[in-house]
Amino acid sequence: xxxxxxxxxxxxxxxxxxxxxxxxxxxxxxxxxxxxxxxxxxxxxxxxxxxxxxxxxxxxxxxxxxxxxxxxxxxxxxxxxxxxxxxxxxxxxxxxxxxxxxxxxxxxxxxxxxxxxxxxxxxxxxxxxxxxxxxxxxxxxxxxxxxxxxxxxxxxxxxxxxxxxxxxxxxxxxxxxxxxxxxxxxxxxxxxxxxxxxxxxxxxxxxxx
Length: 209
Hints:
This protein folds into two domains: 32-102, no CATH class; 113-203, no CATH class. Helix content is 34%, strand content 10%. It has six helices and four strands. Strands 1-4-3-2 form a four-stranded mixed sheet. The radius of gyration is 18 Å and the shape is elongated.
């Protein structure tokens, strides 16, 4: 699996900078963006960028408009934005909708990106998977935690490939291995409060799915 070209939408971007869409690396439809408040300049800039990027279904440009929020219950508030390729009035869009998730949300999952990262960190430190699940006290069942552990294990090779486009794996300072690529993830997005969310935003790829 090959990663995208490097761009300026990574950890070096200031945390207060406006949300942007980098066409150089987002060769696929935009799936994730940073969470923004309604009515703020960052949200308006995001909608302008999404409009310029075009509809993910019919590829028409300048027909995309905001169409409310993507609702859910895994995080506080909406899970993202709903967008409409408008065919109303003088617009010539296809009339279909699509969505862009906040980068701290995992599509189709009740677990947030930060919670998944917490679970995997607990797994790396605990003597067993059961102990890791118990230590996090997350509102998921033990069976659900086991499924997430298995999904992350399958995702390990892919995440390493993506992370290597940002930085080389950090050198080992001790004898402890890094089978879950947590050190590499932290090194790639050291300036971000949630490396898991930053990963989804940077590469437009959902974690462990």
